[in-house]
Amino acid sequence: MSDSINEFHGLHGVKVYNSTIIDWGGSAAITNTKHPEMVSLYIVRTNMSSGLLPVGFQSVDFPQNLYDIEFCVTNLCTLPDDLDTKWHHSSIIQVEFSQLSNFPSVLLRLEPTVLSVSGNPLTEIPPEVFELSGLSDLGIGAMNLNELPRNVTLVSSTLIWIRLVETNVSFFWSWADQVVERVLLVAKGSPYCADLEKIQNGVADTFSVSPSPEYSSILMDPSETNLQVILNTVYCGEFDLPFYFLVVDDYYLAISTPPPL
């Protein structure tokens, strides 16, 4: 990125679409001094050198109003461990359909209000994510996720959405009783929803997994008297990923039809 970006003092947002960032160094960094009005940073269908976060997005003088940071369809594979000393806490942070193979612990310390890591090659999510104070919306869909973490102690009181679309989740642990009719679990494309559809249609009367006292006493109870409670909590209808408005960008910005996710 050219240092000339420092001249754009009224910049409200940056979107990089269908590009490759070879170098975005410190001399062209997004800063509060140069970009005090900036509120959003969107990196979409874009690769970065070695899959690393550019230095230009890591200034200690981060814009004071930049609370919306979203990556979608990128090669980002990790986040710097000291990012919580640079980015603002309570931000919207989305790293979707990228290359995170391990959940970055720095995301816990950043305490985002909206967090999505959908579409990454993750196989597990730390239990602390579900306990984050201030988190309202969690995206963990389109991943090879066989189950939610077992040992969640106290689910965040602010959490209202958990998006686990297109995962392999077939059951819920006992802690999920805490979220019944308070949090919406969006689970289209999961084995759990496949089982629930069979139960609703009268094809089956139990979930396919063997019963366990460690499972949710409510969400794993398919009895007729409990079914509506489940339906008030688990949504198996149509739901698109990613959470980022990729379809809109692809419609207006793409030169040709982008490859499917």
In total, the number of domains comes to 2
**What are the low-pLDDT stretches, counting only 5+ consecutive residues below 50?**
none
Shape: elongated
- Give the rounded overall mean pLDDT: 98
* Percentage of residues assigned to helices: 10-25%
CATH architecture type of the largest domain? Alpha-Beta Horseshoe
Radius of gyration: 20 Å
Provide a count of the helices: 4
CATH topology of the largest domain: Leucine-rich repeat, LRR (right-handed beta-alpha superhelix)
CATH class of the largest domain: Alpha Beta
Largest sheet: 10 strands, parallel
Q: SSE string, helix = H, strand = E?
A: EEEEEHEEEEHHEH
Alpha carbon gap, first and last residue:
27 Å
Number of strands: 10
Map the helices and strands.
Elements: E1 13-17, E2 20-21, E3 40-48, E4 68-74, E5 92-96, H1 106-110, E6 114-116, E7 137-139, E8 161-163, E9 184-186, H2 191-200, H3 224-231, E10 234-235, H4 246-253
Describe this structure in words.
The protein is of the alpha/beta class. It folds into two domains: 1-94 and 247-261; 120-241, Leucine-rich repeat, LRR (right-handed beta-alpha superhelix), CATH 3.80.10. The chain is built from four helices and ten strands; from the N terminus they run βββββαββββααβα. It has helices at 106-110, 191-200, 224-231, 246-253; strands at residues 13-17, 20-21, 40-48, 68-74, 92-96, 114-116, 137-139, 161-163, 184-186, 234-235. Strands 1, 2, 3, 4, 5, 6, 7, 8, 9 and 10 form a ten-stranded parallel beta sheet that branches. Helix 1 (106-110) links the parallel strand 5 (92-96) and strand 6.
